[in-house]
Amino acid sequence: xxxxxxxxxxxxxxxxxxxxxxxxxxxxxxxxxxxxxxxxxxxxxxxxxxxxxxxxxxxxxxxxxxxxxxxxxxxxxxxxxxxxxxxxxxxxxxxxxxxxxxxxxxxxxxxxxxxxxxxxxxxxxxxxxxxxxxxxxxxxxxxxxxxxxxxxxxxxxxxxxxxxxxxxxxxxxxxxxxxxxxxxxxxxxxxxxxxxxxxxxxxxxxxxxxxxxxxxxxxxxxxxxxxxxxxxxxxxxxxxxxxxxxxxxxxxxxxxxxxxxxxxxxxxxxxxxxxxxxxxxxxxxxxxxxxxxxxxxxxxxxxxxxxxxxxxxxxxxxxxxxxxxxxxxxxxxxxxxxxxxxxxxxxxxxxxxxxxxxxxxxxxxxxxxxxxxxxxxxxxxxxxxxxxxxxxxxxxxxxxxxxxxxxxxxxxxxxxxxxxxxxxxxxxxxxxxxxxxxxxxxxxxxxxxxxxxxxxxxxxxxxxxxxxxxxxxxxxxxxxxxxxxxxxxxxxxxxxxxxxxxxxxxxxxxxxxxxxxxxxxxxxxxxxxxxxxxxxxxxxxxxxxxxxxxxxxxxxxxxxxxxxxxxxxxxxxxxxxxxxxxxxxxxxxxxxxxxxxxxxxxxxxxxxxxxxxxxxxxxxxxxxxxxxxxxxxxxxxxxxxxxxxxxxxxxxxxxxxxxxxxxxxxxxxxxxxxxxxxxxxxxxxxxxxxxxxxxxxxxxxxxxxxxxxxxxxxxxxxxxxxxxxxxxxxxxxxxxxxxxxxxxxxxxxxxxxxxxxxxxxxxxxxxxxxxxxxxxxxxxxxxxxxxxxxxxxxxxxxxxxxxxxxxxxxxxxxxxxxxxxxxxxxxxxxxxxxxxxxxxxxxxxxxxxxxxxxxxxxxxxxxxxxxxxxxxxxxxxxxxxxxxxxxxxxxxxxxxxxxxxxxxxxxxxxxxxxxxxxxxxxxxxxxxxxxxxxxxxxxxxxxxxxxxxxxxxxxxxxxxxx
Length: 962
Known about the structure:
Distance between the termini: 32 Å
Largest sheet: 10 strands, mixed
Oligomer: single chain
Number of helices: 29
Shape: globular
Mean pLDDT: 85
Low-confidence stretches: 1-20, 230-235, 703-724, 870-894
Number of strands: 24
Structural class: alpha/beta
Strand content: 5-15%
Helix content: 25-40%
């Protein structure tokens, strides 16, 4: 939508002084339809939302008759109902429709924008509201959770999820830190702080005593966070603690959590309950924070060169101790190997991209490390659903993406105007610098759908181009808003630095090397945006000190029905899907058939590959799939899990195009060494990341894991003993299969038998109907049918069942209405004789003495049961091999739309296994390996990684991230 200038007609309601406004925004309608409300364009339906904790059986939540569009998944509607609807459950004040939720939020944004003079006319404000409503309704983006919690309610209008605090070297400041963190935790958000101003335990107090050091004060803050968590919060308190690498207490800080992890192991082995929510875990310290070391270029170069490094007194800056830099770096890596903490934050890189250095340095981050800005500040987040901008023809809709960014940035800036904040210091800094954090989710799904491997040059180029376009459009809109509302209050003193960072972003975009037409077109559009950023920004300044970052998007990612969160790759190819009305299904990701079509495969081959994935959970040796295409389907876990450096390289590709940083943990296998951790940390610095965290599978004890992975309790390393275990493999029937129903009468008792068979391989299931529905006999027949069907699918030969169940004698017995079986000794005798006649070969039946009426007649006439002509052998199935070239052109296969892809996936859908309740648990069953993640404290299911924390796809709860 184009922007023109008109005199603004609305007046500001704010009492604070503002520069004269040059214009108001003119908003062109792009997504919504003139004269039609967005709600009237979709079909709505009522649903019952009922949640229980599967472990305890306790009811967690219940609200019936809630209203959602029919295309919203059960998962998304459940999460929105339980997390974001306001009002007491069971009362008239409780929200019961998505309409009410969106209207509550959008109305506040629109009316505030009008009052503050953001729009040229009331009509532009109306269009803005419609566009915002349409995108939220259709899951194109989402605000961060505090917006949904608070905006438009009677509660304080808390809009920010990320906070950075500050602590000085005084007891008053330290105690104030405790209080401020507590208020933020109470509101459901997280905070980070750098403790490096606090004197070390090697320095003296003014009274002559020795200082306690920052690590000692961490105990009090950790206890506070744990107490607030146990006081009824729905998730753990989220906090980040940072210490500079030149602090004299750095070694104590580095080893703090590793020592506690050893304590956890010892207490667990002694019989104490050390699970994440165990009653004894509270005795262990420092478990409520993520710890990070702030390293400098000087230190990292000293590590490379093997030099000594000086630790400095906090008050004077004098070197009071020297350490071997390489040895200290080794201790950092060793601790991270042992317990995943500490992570690293690269100080010089962070501050080199800082738009406000004249105001102060960036010293800390929020708990997930994506928001990095001034002390005592906050950030409002929103994330785009990238897959929504991929057309049915597999082109990225550049213009719609840019227009979406414009609307979202405008809304986010409006929210800073009406937002409330937990402290006056945070409120002042946020209003003066107006930090925003637009980001995205579903990158992994977008890359797969377009035929790009996550760990590939093409995948990284596409991700970088999209990120550059997003941030460029965001800053261009920020410059336009500065022309309407004025630049942020701190811009004047930082104008030169801010413009320098804009030129750095522009230069990074110019240096981006594209691989194909898609990313080249996006990069070209980004180039135009950055040109406007420099031009318009030099004239107007900028409304916002910060524009973009990549958050974990855990709960809001599920709200948008995203397959992948933040910058993460797809978790797995097979997913767990809840169904309307109850129940669940195991399905293959809808992006898989879409990707296969993009790669040029025929519809028949796509169906075969999807069926193979449904059975095995991966693509290795899938029929007809070329090995060179395997990388497109690499995921976070499974047989072809993405390598650790693949994650690091993706982060490095997009980092130059973000104002902030990236919330992501690089996962390493349990077999990873300390040297592997050190290499990841070193490469993160060399590749220009701002922050990096790692996690080695099963390195932590203090969380409940699945029982699929047993703890090794032996003290010494022993040679592994290979145990080969042979198990039957279940061959499930396809979604569509041949079947027919036979009615029968045995001794006057009537019944029906329905059989289903594999297209080429015999009987696979039976269903017996005998007796009235709900009767004991009917129930016994149902159970018997299931048992036989499962046996058949696990490979028990039908001949075995026939041998065991024919000739059984019990009532009812006698005459039948079947010309081939005139007399039966029981129902079972008849059933399995009929199955033998229908599904066994002549030779197999002859061995069992079971013949048709025609064969018995032939024996009387000829003395032989054998047919006069030999039976025609079944034609052997012709199977495609990986060498077979697809016969359908790419142009033809691009007609496989998302709707067709959903039908293809539906063909391979099957009831989820009894034990699995989430995709993580489903992959555990398919692969036989454990997903190293905690169980959800709300519903008891296995969570899955999301950025630097974990999120539950069942109820949307997180392990600490906002």
